[in-house]
Each structure stands twice: as C-alpha cells, then as structure tokens.
Amino acid sequence: MAEKKNSIVAERTGAGDTLLRVLVVDDEPISRRVISSILEKDGHVVFKAENGQEGVAVFERQRPDIVIMDIMMPVMDGYEATRIIKKQSGESFVPVICLTGLEDEVSLAKCVAAGADDFLSKPVNRVILNAKIDAMMRIRRLYKTVTEQNEQLADQFARLEQEQEMAQKVFATMINRGCLDAPNLKYLISPLALFNGDVLFAARKPSGGMHVMLGDFTGHGLPAAIGAIPVSDIFYSMTENGHNIGEIVLEMNTKLHTMLPVNQFLAGCLLELDNVRGSLTVWSGAIPDVLVLKKEGGIKYRLKSKNLPLGVVGNNTFESIVEVNDIDMGERIYVYSDGLIEARRPDGEMFGQERLDTYFLRNQAPDGLFEEIKKSFADFCAGEAQEDDITIVEITCDEERG
Question: What's the pTM?
C-alpha cells in the first residue's frame, strides 16, 4: 500500500523527484491541521508554524521545498514573513503560496509585492491544493533546469573568454613586432571587440626611413582580424628584404583576394617615409584622407584615396596608384580609420571630417596636437559605446629618430 502511495506521489510531482518538504504557516489550528493532513496523506513531509516569525525560524532550520503561508497572523504577518523567506532563499526558487480569505485586489497585490508566487483561498480544497503544488513544482523544476543551463553557459563563456584572451596575446605578438614604439610615432588604437579589425604596422627599412601601414578590415572582431596575420607577415618580411610599398601592396592584394570571402576586404594606407631624401610615398585605398601638416601648424597637403581596397579584385585587374610627395623635417603625417570620424556622441551627431580638420587648421602647438585630438574626441563621445574600431596615428618626419 505504501509503495502504491509513493508511486502516485512520484507520478504527481514528477518522475525522479523525492517527496516534498512543505512548510505550513497558519495561526488557525484547524486550518493548519487540515492542510497538513492533506499533504501528509500524499506522502509529503510537513513542518508547521503558528505565525510568520516562527515560520521564518522553521524555514531557516529545515529549508523546505515549498511554503504555504497564511497572510493574517499575529506577531508577524504573512507579507513580512514571505519577504524574509524569499530573501533567505537567495538564488534558489522556493515557491510561496499565500493562504488567504481575502479577495480584494489590494491584498492580493500586496502578496505579489512581497514575493508570493500563487494564492490559495480558504477553506482549502484538496484538489486545488494539489494542483497548486504541482504547478509550483513544475516551475521549480524548470527554474532549476534554467539555472543549471545558465551556470553551464557561464562556465563555457569563461573558458571561451580565457581562450580568446590567450589567442589575442598570441595575435598581438605576431602582428606587433616592428617599431611601433619609435619616438616619432604616436597612435591611438581602440578596438570594438577583443580582436581588432584595424591594424597598424611600422618597420624600419634597411636603407633608412620607415614603412607604416594602417588597415581597416571589413567588420569587427575575430573574423575581421583573421587576415591581419598574413598581412603582417607580408609587411614585415618584405620591408626587411628591401621591397618598396608598391611591391608590398601587390603581394598583400594577391593574398587577401585568395583567402577572403567576397564580402570582406582591407581598406588601408601604406606609406614610406624617407627622411634623408625628404620624400613621402603613399598608397591609399578606400581610407580617409592622409594629411601632412606643416611644422608650424596647419595643413600642407591632403592625399585622397585613389585605389580600391585590398582583396576586392585580382592583380590582373588591380591598379595600384602610388604618390610621391616632398616632406620636410618636423612635419607631421596623420592617418586614421573611418571609425574616428564616424564615431557618435549620445545625441547621434558624428565627430566628422570637418570637426577633425578644424584641429589641423587652427593648431598652433604641433607638439600637443595629437593629445588635443585624443582628449577632444573622448569628450565628444562622452562615454557613448563605440560602433567601430578606431585608430589614429601621427608620424613625425624626424632626422634623428625617423
């Protein structure tokens, strides 16, 4: 007989569940006895309390699976007891069914505000009581499942984040092996994600001077950064072997056209600074204007993009236009990705090319220009989340350090 009863309870509460531990809090002895009798006949373990304060104390000791809470009680009413029990439950879901003879909306709303999960009217009906308990335990099982899944997802996310951080360190080591720490270079790199879709390389030429490249891959994060590794290998190895930027650009285009999908490419600028000859050679493809500033301040000349991005077409149709211009000692070159001028402040207004140009045109303290732009840009954005990778670099034509 006992086996049959336990089988019925297991079927009603869910396969695999143990018998429930139920706390009944009610100041009326008859009501408390009736409810307890119903629950015990179904095989549940019942704990009893005569008021809210005693109910909280029993809850602390026994940690039941579900609570049936009367509302109108002496010492401590059911509202306060429910609030305390819900707080003590922490992350666990312990259903509280309010037991009340009240039916007005204000009283029921107070039950909900206190944290109650359901209502049960007096006098208690056995069928309805069992149905309420079944419903609450289904929610409890679902809550437990969701909690376990969230914990698993959190663990997986933590592992993924750790792996990405490790990969990012390896990635940074592979692509940043040149002379970005050169005294005549200043730069700001602000990636949107852990992996940067913008790339910045700098390397000294065997014959003197330096090569610098700023690139902006389509998209953001890891997919956009995948192409950075072969591009950096080409840049550093060919610079080290004495190749000019025209040859480097063609090799990069061949590689990227082969490996990138049709919707991805690399906009960028590759420049060669020869401070001995006083020349600046620039290849620019689908990137904002390259600006050269006078030593005393103001714009000397502006170089607009004249090429397709890298990787769009093969070398049989790829036209590479390289410009050569003069540059004097102390003059500065500015290159930046479109993330800078397209950044928005909270009201939606873009930073814009015109705003950036005002700093170049009015600047009377060239040595402090880069820091002024950085500060003004940060103030403009006012903490607004960025929508793209952002990179800006200043290169000074310096006889001793170029």
Answer: 0.63
